[in-house]
Amino acid sequence: MKFSYKGVEEASNQVVEGELDAVSQQEAMRVLAERRIEVFQLQQAQQYAQKGRKVKTADLVLPLQELATLTSSGVTLIDAIKALSNNDEHPQMAKGFAVIASHIESGESFSAAIVESGLPFPVYVGHLVSAGELGGELAQALQKAAQQLEYEQSVKGDMRSALTYPLVLIGSGIAAMLIIFFAVVPKFSHMLDDGKELPALAWAVLSAGKTVNQSPLLVATVIAAALLTIIAIFLNQSVQRKLMDTAIEMPVIGPWLAEQDAARWASLCAAMLLARVNLVSALRLAAQSCEFSKRRKRADTMVLDVESGVSFTEALTRSQLVPETSLNLVAVGDKTGQLADMLNAVAKLHDTACKRRMKQVLTLMEPIAILIVGIMIGVMILGIVLAITASTDIAI
Known about the structure:
Elements: E1 2-9, E2 14-21, H1 25-34, E3 37-44, H2 46-49, H3 61-72, H4 77-84, H5 91-105, H6 110-116, H7 123-135, H8 138-184, H9 200-214, H10 216-235, H11 237-247, H12 253-274, H13 279-288, H14 293-307, H15 312-319, H16 324-336, H17 339-392
Helix pairs in contact: 3-4, 3-8, 4-5, 5-6, 6-7, 7-8, 8-12, 8-17, 9-17, 12-13, 12-17, 13-14, 14-15, 15-16, 16-17
Subcellular location: Cell membrane
Pfam family, one: T2SSF
Membrane topology: Multi-pass membrane protein
């Protein structure tokens, strides 16, 4: 980051000012002292203090991969982090890595500096890095952290992709319905004043269309308020948890979400064990990755079973976190000392099964979305047709 300074140059005894690059204020002071400048004002340069976009967890995949590559190539950790702190395209991320560099230079460990950086690293990243520091395999630990983070982001991306098309279809249907309300229904609303008795559906459609056209601002306000309320509800963490817990109990969708959660749990367990994190800590962190209340409780119970002396295979069988077909692989890995590799294989199997189930969900959701759109538009058209036939005494 850039610092602006003012001070007195000892050689000339004159006031000097300027800017310099440093990862922390302490380093800036040290550099200026080496230049024999007695500083009386030092602050971050205005251009660096500007706020950039907020750092998201997905943004951290590439920096972790870069750190792994640099450290495995022989670049010192502090130099690698300083290189990432010079990211002008993402000031907030650069600021976070500058904080990490500052903490490391002050004597803290890399894992502790990550926690205090303010960057949205998942909890397991700090544990993987700590294990890598203790085992002298920091580059490998960083690579595993990057791979796990990338995997989790790809899972979220798959879920968003699966839901995008049905939501677009339903949104298009709502837009078409509003167009009919504003452009078509008003041409028939005079039938309400003709004195003829209309079928209930025809009356409801024409009355709604008349109200929409007479008070468009009020209707727009109500729709906007309803949308904001729905968004606020869905952004609520407790509501999200309840929705997820409900979804996993549903047919078709439930098995897909269960496969996805099982793959994530096994993948994180494997990554932690390969980084030589102790088994109980690995299980605790993997339990935190479970997005569904029932599965999280089962994972927590499994931790307690392992702590009480139950074997990993037996505890996993009791918890039912993975299907029975995967238990044989885990049992073999537990007996042969290759548990991490087998869990990694289980994660890949469930990831493949998850993608297959996602296609099944999409196959079901697309016609449902089309059906919903057809019903919404069909009801309106039927209401208009019933109004026309009622006013002209045509029997249908």
